[in-house]
TrEMBL record:
Belongs to the short-chain dehydrogenases/reductases (SDR) family. This is SDR family oxidoreductase.
Length: 264
């Protein structure tokens, strides 16, 4: 299927590895030019090199990278100095630490809200008017399945990401919708990334069980019997950015192998 994205420009955050990199790969495979962003320059440069060698050469897509902390004002200014206008923005920031809510002070909460709620809002604010003027725009926020089914050790994430979800529910249905700009959230369940490794380790520490036991137990609770892959995640992201998804906005797309058992 041709997703109609050839030649578009995308900003993909947190794209040096994991789900962000999976999204960048899928978009480049569709001929989308990408500017990938993450904090670690060495890993990001390697990701860009791999994207060029393995994907961009066959599609003619351009791959740029900018090593910055997108959660800071200075980081965002540096990114938009490389390129200002984007047709697609994939917001993504590392999740806040696991732990017990009793141990988190105000600074911990502010940091979580800043990274996982306010930063995506700032990126949306900086790009949607240009998208609307051109008549095409796609915002995809990588949030978490925890906004539908909260995870006890991820209280910071539960709160901050739910705040973003509420904001998107309103702005996605504003005048932007009639101008060809869609805003959707993509909610990952358990994917085989560094993030799952961290949460598994935290669960193991809390329960006294081994990492191997926790991984096996988690995968057994997923109807598909396994963790997802970043490549699978990226393909769904690419579809949300496609012309075929033009009538879809303000949605929370849960990608979790069937783990969430609710009807809605």
């Amino acid at each position: 299927m041709d997703l109609g994205l050839q030649g578009k420009w995308a900003l993909v955050c947190g794209a040096s590895k994991g789900l962000g990199l999976g999204c960048a790969q899928a978009l480049v495979q569709e001929g989308v030019n990408v500017l990938i962003v993450a904090r670690g320059e060495a890993l990001l440069a390697q990701a860009a090199s791999n994207l060029i060698a393995n994907h961009a050469q066959s599609t003619g897509a351009s791959v740029l990278f900018c090593a910055q902390d997108i959660t800071t004002v200075a980081g965002r200014e540096a990114v938009f100095a490389v390129r200002k206008d984007f047709d697609i923005v994939v917001t993504n920031a590392g999740g806040p630490p696991t732990g017990d809510f009793r141990d988190w002070d105000r600074d911990a909460w502010i940091k979580a809200v800043d990274a996982n709620m306010l930063t995506p809002i700032e990126l949306i604010k900086a790009t949607v008017d240009g998208m609307a003027a051109r008549g095409f725009g796609r915002i995809v926020n990588i949030t978490s399945s925890s906004v539908k089914s909260p995870i006890d050790i991820l209280g910071l994430s539960n709160g901050a990401r739910s705040g973003l979800t509420g904001f998107v529910a309103g702005v996605a249905r504003s005048s932007l919708a009639a101008k060809g700009v869609t805003i959707n959230n993509l909610l990952p369940g358990k994917f085989d990334t560094d993030r799952i490794a961290a949460t598994v380790q935290a669960t193991a520490n809390k329960s006294g069980k081994s990492v191997e036991e926790i991984r096996a137990s988690q995968q057994a609770q997923i109807p598909m019997g396994r963790y997802g892959t970043p490549q699978e995640f990226g393909q769904v992201c690419a579809f949300l950015c496609s012309q075929q998804a033009a009538y879809m906005t303000g949605q929370n797309v849960l990608l979790d192998g069937g783990a969430y058992s609710g009807t809605f």
